[in-house]
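Retro notes - structure team

What went well: the batch runner handled both jobs without manual restarts.
What didn't: labels got mixed up in the shared folder, which is why I'm recording both outputs here explicitly, each with its sequence directly above its tokens.

Job 1
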Amino acid sequence: MPNFTTEIMETLINKGDLDDLFRRHLELAINTLL
């Protein structure tokens, strides 16, 4: 989870797309469950 927080901060600092960040992590979580 700390890595996720770091990625959020880096995305905000770089004015990145948070939707893309959440989408990637959600996809990873779902794939892990399957």
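Job 2
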Amino acid sequence: MKVTWESADAYELYMGRWSRLVAVQFLEWLDPADGLKWLDVGIGTGTLSDLILNKYKPAELYAIDQSESFIKTAQMRLRKDIQLQVGNAMDLPIDDDAVNITVSGLLLNLPPEPELALKEMVRVTANNGTIAAYVWDYSGGMEMLNYFWEAAVELNLMADLMHEGKRYDHCDKPALKQLFVDAGMTDIAVTSIEIIQQFADFDQFWDPFQAGQGTAPTYLLSQKESEQTALRDLVKTHLPIAEDGSIKLRARAWAIKGVVTKLAKEEPEAERAPADEGGSDD
């Protein structure tokens, strides 16, 4: 089942608004200097880049995303002093050592080969530069999705194949740290970032799932209408709905950063002049 990531407005309603809450804490933890050259891999609707532009005075800011729709939305949302391109995280359209700091929000779980995406980030980041990212803790700290998938699997065991807690089980602290270690980075640090997702009522919780952006919404819309209704009703019975109809859920992301350490490139050995084999005239 192909997961859809094309509608920027639907994505913002479903996940983008929560990403912003994480991004604020992520950048505070990262504590970057002003005047750096940045790359945002997987810009989405522009959440992370917007904060970078407004708070950290980048000398340059590049951003890529595989979705042309997201790139267009980010271009309209952000100032013009950002260089946006449609591109693949596993084959970045950026020169070697072009930036001082590469960041990525809610992306590292998506590439088929996350180690290749990270290798590309290392390539484009200068020596002693920083690479940092954050991803949801799908297997242990994303209640919004856990309630959905628990109900989906209860109704259809095949839904377990799409369960993000199972598909993205590499999005935990040990796996992320190992990913950065394998990429040759040093001074690696990992932290958790927790937010509260607040919904005024059940409809505000459920409507974004019906927009079809992301794994759970894609699964939902693949079901028959009667099955969608049954899933909706079951999720509602499981949720901690307050007396006033509101819902508060916990969401946790893992943030990681490391320093790029590259070996100095060896200069070609200069041709040596042949030694003087003659004896002294003295």
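One thing worth noting from job 2: The domain at 8-142+167-196+251-259 is CATH 3.40.50.150 (Rossmann fold).
We'll revisit the folder naming next retro.
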